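Q: My collaborator sent me two sequences in one message, no labels, and asked for predicted structures for both. Can we handle them in order? The first one she listed is below.
A: Yes, handling them in the order given. First sequence, followed by its structure tokens:
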Amino acid sequence: MRDPATTSRIMSAIRSRDTGPELLLRRELHRRGLRYRLRSSLPGRPDLVFPRARLAVFVDGDYWHGNTWRLRDAPSLDAYFASIANADFWRTKITTNIARDQRVNDQLHENGWRVVRLWESDLRKNLEESADMIERAVRDEAQSDRRGHSRRSV
């Protein structure tokens, strides 16, 4: 077991923004001619915001947002944490993050925003597919704006 000071130092080094997967996505979207904002006062502080398309994009880390158990073929989140030190703490931490993500999605939808959440592992596996999805969402909204229509959810 690690001492608390070591754990604290490790945890403080984990980035919450400008992560590798975020930078990959940003470069790809910029290469495609899509422009976005990085700073926003929207709920949940999305990683990318397309204001005209009312699209909020989140790049969720697999561990922190509850996808690691799937990647490691565990039968469930609970089963994944069963063999980890301090399992109750981590299970509570991750399930709280998952619930917060859902609240943020709900708030954004209620305010007329569409939300795209991408797993970091999906971006690393197939960046083009993720970028295609976002590009379609942005460009479809731009087309419907020109026709005077608006879509509300992705």
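Q: And the one she listed second?
A: Here it is, processed independently of the first:
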Amino acid sequence: MAMKFTDALDRKMEDVKRPPNPPVGHYTWQVKKHPDTDSFESKNSGKTFDRLEFSMACVAPSDDVDPDDLAEYGDVTGFLTRKSFLFDNEDEQAFERSMYNLKRFFEHLGVDESLSVSEALAACIGAQCLGELKHRPDPNDPEVVYAELGRTAAL
């Protein structure tokens, strides 16, 4: 059922609940748009990082997703999550590891290896891969659990 924000204005805040996460397991994912980039400084180390974040939409579950849990959750098609890559601007080896992980992600999406990174970023929009959906509790609030896209593979 489609909702409008204006329809929710009369709801009591105590009636607003966190929706459940889709069940863990492997799904087919699609890159929805050009990835977002930002830079930030780590509170712990003071290091600066660049973050590259892909918006990933669920296309379909794989056979390893529990059918009962899936039936209880409902339609997972279109569920959005992110796939992020952090680039340490002060540690060359860590930066190159992130670059290699990004290259592998592009391979899983079927992006041609002969492209430059900027060309690959454009070419990956709409591409699909297999990815593992995991649940991770918030370290500051164990009642909050995030659905995250973990390892990926080619379809």
